[in-house]
Each structure stands twice: as structure tokens, then as C-alpha cells.
Design brief:
Blueprint (H helix, E strand, L loop, with lengths): L2 H12 L5 H13 L1 H18 L8 H12 L2 H29 L25 H10 L17
Helix pairs in contact: 1-2, 1-3, 2-3
């Protein structure tokens, strides 16, 4: 038996899948050929290392996907989620479109309307008290606006 044939049958030899005559011929070749013997030792070491490993834990979700894929329903479930997402986007778009059509002139709350301002919040507008204190002091101190909830000592 030549090296090429032995190397092709070496895995089957280690798994004991060959007949007794083939096993005897391979064993005789391994005693005579150092290269094939070294390859057999390496494959034996790899096989022994892999046999010591524990199989990975498989979650229930993975098994469910395998069964769905086998039945051809995995694509259907994926398509179902895509349809749900598209319907949600369509409803949001419809809501925004109708709100803009129902309220076309609404630009949101205007917080800084001139008539809604309270006195003392604008730098250029002053309360009568501030005007009196400025007149008494001769306008020497800079104007400090009144801030809500923050006491100001002068």
C-alpha cells in the first residue's frame, strides 16, 4: 500500500471503520513509513483532544429556529416581523399627516410673546421699583434683572 492511499484511509483506520485486511495492511505500512506514522500520531492526538470536549449547550430558541427552518416557516416568521414594522411606520406617518392637516397654522407654543411677558424678565424692560432705584443711584450700577426664586441683594 502506498502513502497516498494510507493517508486517505487513516481517519477511517482510527475510527475502526475498515475491514481486518485493510487494517492489517495500513498497520504494516505505518511500521515501515515514518511520515505516515507521524501523521497517524497527530491525528490520534487530535481525536483524543476532541473527544474530551463537552458539547456546547443549545438553547431552546436555537432548536426552535432549526425546526422552523426545516419546516420552511423561518422566512415566514421573519416576513411577519417586517410586515409589523411596516404597519407601525405607516400608522405613525398617518398620525403625523393628519395632525398637520388638522392644525395647519399651529407652530407650537410661543413662549416669548410680548404681551405674555412678566415684568422684570427682559433686560430692556424695568419695573417701576427698578426705575426708581436707578434714578436714585444716578444710573451708576448696572441693571440686574429679577429672576424668579432667586433673591437679589442690592
Amino acid at each position: 500500500m502506498n502513502c497516498h492511499r494510507v493517508q486517505n484511509l487513516l481517519s477511517s483506520y482510527l475510527d475502526q471503520e475498515l475491514s481486518a485486511g485493510e487494517r492489517r495492511e495500513i498497520r504494516r505500512h505505518l511500521f515501515a513509513c515514518a511520515g505516515c506514522s507521524r501523521l497517524c500520531d497527530e491525528l490520534t492526538l487530535i481525536k483524543d483532544s476532541l473527544e474530551g470536549l463537552e458539547p456546547p449547550a443549545i438553547g431552546g430558541d436555537f432548536l426552535k429556529k432549526v425546526h422552523l427552518y426545516r419546516d420552511g416557516r423561518l422566512l415566514q416568521e421573519t416576513f411577519l416581523w417586517g410586515k409589523r414594522l411596516a404597519m407601525t411606520a405607516a400608522w405613525i406617518l398617518l398620525f403625523l399627516l393628519t395632525s398637520f392637516l388638522l392644525f395647519p397654522n399651529s407652530s407650537g407654543p410661543e413662549l416669548a410673546k410680548k404681551e405674555d411677558r412678566l415684568p422684570g424678565y427682559d433686560v430692556h424692560e424695568r419695573t417701576p421699583q427698578q426705575q426708581e432705584t436707578q434714578a436714585e443711584e444716578g444710573g451708576k450700577k448696572p441693571f440686574l434683572p429679577l429672576l424668579p426664586g432667586i433673591p437679589v441683594s442690592r
